[in-house]
Design goal:
elongated; 3-stranded antiparallel β-sheet; 106 residues; binds zinc ion; 11% helix
Length: 106
């Protein structure tokens, strides 16, 4: 069964659950509208497919994302580097920035 994340609309100190909690339910079921423990209104904040947050760098690249990982003050590793882009992006050197124009055209 998919696992959903719900969020209380209120801050009920008497609820045994946190403001956000996980709730397992069949995908075809309607989303909960009330907390099963305290009865306060809740809203589903994440669809099950979004629970797969971990994306591989190659997936991001294929989808047109750019991923920069900070390695030092003002220095980032370009994990989705495309042809012609340097491996490291220096905040002070625009020539090292990812080439958006190339990403868009590809
Ligand atoms: Zn509750």
């Amino acid at each position: 069964m998919p696992l959903y994340i719900y969020e209380h609309a209120t801050n009920n100190p008497n609820c045994p659950r946190d403001k956000e909690f996980r709730w397992e339910q069949p995908a075809q079921d309607w989303p909960l509208t009330k907390c099963p423990w305290c009865g306060d209104p809740v809203a589903r904040v994440m669809a099950p497919s979004l629970l797969k947050i971990k994306k591989f760098d190659c997936e991001l690249k294929d989808q047109g994302f750019t991923k920069l990982v900070r390695v030092d003050e003002g220095l980032f590793e370009n994990r989705t580097r495309r042809a012609g882009e340097p491996k490291y992006v220096d905040r002070h050197n625009p020539e090292t920035f990812p080439i958006l124009e190339k990403t868009i055209k590809d």
